[in-house]
Automatic annotation (TrEMBL):
Residues 289-489 form the FAD-dependent protein C-terminal domain. It comes from the Bacteria. InterPro entries: FAD-binding_protein (IPR028348), FAD-depend_C (IPR049516), FAD/NAD-bd_sf (IPR036188). It comes from Dyella acidiphila. This is NAD(P)/FAD-dependent oxidoreductase.
Amino acid sequence: MLRLTDIKLPLDHAEDALPAAIRAKLHIGAQAIRSYSVFRRGHDARKRGNIQLIYTLDVEVADQAKLLQRFADDPHVRPTPDTDYRFVAKASEGAAHRPVVIGLGPCGLFAGLLLAQMGFRPIILERGKAVRERTKDTWDLWRKRNLHPESNVQFGEGGAGTFSDGKLYSQISDPHHYGRKVLTEFVKAGAPEEIIYVSKPHIGTFRLVTMVENMRNTIEALGGEIRFQQRVDDLLVETDAQGTRHVRGVMLASGEQIRTDHVVLALGHSARDTVEMLHRRGVYLEAKPFSIGFRVEHPQSLIDQARFGPQAGHPLLGAADYKLVHHCRNGRSVYSFCMCPGGTVVAATSEPGRVVTNGMSQYSRNERNANAAIVVGIDPADFTPYDNSGSPLAGIALQRHWESRAFELGGGTYEAPGQLLGDFLAGRPSSAFGEVQPSYKPGVHLTDLAGALPDYAIEAIREAMPAFDRKIKGFGRPDAIFTAVETRTSSPVRIRRNDDDYQSLNTRGLFPAGEGAGYAGGILSAGVDGIRIAEAVALAIGTKA
Ligand code: FAD
């Protein structure tokens, strides 16, 4: 098979334009093409009014060797790489040993799935509820201001990405094509097939719920066991005569102990109590940089117009997204993060008395507003005002401080504090919404956000917004709405692991994984890391394939 890259066609091309483009590119006749498929479809929107589709195509041709020779100097004609997934190990016949996976977010889901597919019958422990019950609890906060600390946007089946935009792209390097395995399994579980080939696929919340359930059924059918409302509260660790620490099992909140020598930690970035427990148990942790800021909302039509001009609304383009960055005079960088086209801002706290924002959308992305986090990068030196003990958990203290402040500024009712962009820039509190209506539930309490983040962050965001307005005309419109506070952008802690066997730096048998351990940022990369970790566990227990 040949892979042709960078095949450009107009947005409204006819179906037979693809084989015609193949013939033109390879200088061959129709009879030389046996079959072709679209590997990827993206678009180039740099020229307003002349948006082009950019294809990567896999083509089966009559005389591949000859064509490869002819196009030896053309980087856009190459043999198609082998992206099929192959298992690295399998469980030994009748093996009694069962690995434990903590957490059923995308990382735990893929670690559990792969271990089950290799025959290891994993036990997966999830503190939250199964996804349907979890959905009700999550909506209870959004509709009635009742937070369920163990069942919410962060905790429960599917993990943090379940109520999300379901964006499935990532900039990670993926030489083993694990991302393709993730997408293929998602399609088997009910995702639309297009996620395999569109360049920026997304799924949206409703479909994710069903997919997560289907994946659970697959894991169980393969002998895995999934237990909900089973929070791991302690780790059983033994030190051998050489002074090496080994994990020997976990203890649940109920007091039950599960013995195992292999534990995958796929906790996500919000299990602060569990990370505190790991710290007490002496597991090697370190503070890591992350970002803090606000969510901003604009009319989606403004973003569509700015990005797509007269072609806005074209079904192949969908709702437009954006990605912005600005380097500030005070040395900080401000950037847009987790942009949700045609979506809503959601209440994403997991702790009482705190307010956290995030964004989600449905597959259709047809809500009125576009939203994105506008965040400022911070690093461990910024954490000391909140905890100067030198603890690796100081970033959590910072998060809690500003999440509690957001709760107070929002009126103490789980409403998010908000401000119109024009007022934020002018340094005056807001008192009425303009044309843009906020989507955050249970509501937005207008106030002054100058006290909602550290001064350097406020200064940086004030400098960045006019710069963003120069990139997207109208981005700085005075009635765009900020809501606070966006603190859970990634984990403030890294649970360090070895580069070779992926086990904790100082505790054998413990496999830190996913976003909570600092090894992923997003659904796809967390799934990819789950695969990587399942392989490491399988190689540690099983027979090499
Ligand atoms: P998580 O998904 O956080 O899963 C961790 C799981 O571990 C949780 O279910 C938790 O309950 C469980 N757990 C924690 N502690 C324990 C314990 N002690 N015992 C038992 N279980 C425990 N990313 C994207 O790529 N695209 C998006 O569009 C997107 N949108 C998002 C929207 C929202 C509202 C949120 C909150 C996040 C979004 N993200 C998105 C980020 C993405 O969800 C995360 O990067 C991803 O879920 C991380 O996967 P994970 O498996 O590492 O951790």
